[in-house]
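Workshop exercise sheet. Pairs work together: one partner reads the sequence aloud, the other fills in the structure field after running the prediction. Swap roles for the next sheet.
Pair: D.N. / O.F.
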Amino acid sequence: MLALAVGLAGCSSASSPQPAPTVTVTSAAGPAHRAALGPALRQLRKAIEREGFSVTDAALHAGANYWPGLQPVVVSQHPDEPCFNVFFLAHGRYVGRDSRGCHLGVQVAWGDGHEVAVTYAHYARRDPVCCPSRNPILVRYAVSASGVRRASQQPPPSR
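Structure field:
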């Protein structure tokens, strides 16, 4: 069983804004017992890397826990930077991503097989990276005939 922990340390402000969420994945079974990537997840990793992004085994396993009709996988373009996108798969096939720009504080909130909801940290113009002062934005995505489409508002501007 995988658990998602969200948080970023090091924010100090008099107004105590909420820290920007980043994704850290831990396993209840521990890393030694983590399941190996099967052929479908290895194929997905190759597709993500062809797009110029990287993905952890944990993120692949987390995406695989969603219904196959619409699976979200959190990816990054630069492994050392906390800037993320969400790639979507429908029945093992890449159908699109959340946006062209990358985002800080991306977290998959829920998925029901037809839609997936993603929350994005929302920064005011002068907010430090650690501390977005605006409420997070929830964006829903759904599968369409041409791929994936936003079913609600769009993500905040890239930072």
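Discussion prompt: Residues 39-50 form the longest helix (12 residues). What would you look at next?
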